[in-house]
Amino acid sequence: MGLCYSSLLSQAQPKLARRIVPADNSCLFRSISYLITNDTDSPSELRQLAAGIILSNPHRYSSVVLGKERQEYVEWLLRDESWGGAIELSVLSEHYKVELDVVDIQSQRIDRFGEGAGFRDRALLIYDGIHYDPLVMEGVGGAGGQRMFPVSDARILEKASQLAREAFQARQYTDVAKFSLKCLACGTGLQGQSEAQRHAMETGHINFGEV
Q1: For the domain 15-174, what is the CATH code?
Q2: Has 186 been annotated as catalytic?
Q3: N or C: which end of the chain has fewer CB within 10 A?
């Protein structure tokens, strides 16, 4: 009976956990969609939303900020195979008035998009170098878990950091500075994310495979 009770008690304790979304180049958009709407099936809608905001704010999202001409960047962003990143996190944080906090497994850093903007709530994501997943508190907030947390409560960031430490110790990350890639369009061998990004900018090739 004691073991049974302990097991039930353990199951009842709220726990910050990772919700796995498909690794289909839209993981960031699926993760944010899940956190905001409890739906992972609308990544293209978030791509279109972010693209529209970028186009309508030429001074804020200049070619210098984007790394390429705005129209070119937007066309790239709207492709299903393009990965979202810091720019899209910033855009969508401001649009939804929610701080989006990303804990990086390898560096153990937490990047807080919307920090200091006066938003009431925050949502959490975990990043392994090439893939984003949303974080939720299981055991509260209904079957899907609690997806939003008060910005005023920093304890949830400590829990996210602990989750990242455990993932790091289990080597559940990809070292993007060292992993080997091949361009699927021309077969060029590349080392790390920076070479892949440079190759994409120079050639327009955007499909890569890990080797």
Answers
A1: 3.90.70.80
A2: no
A3: N
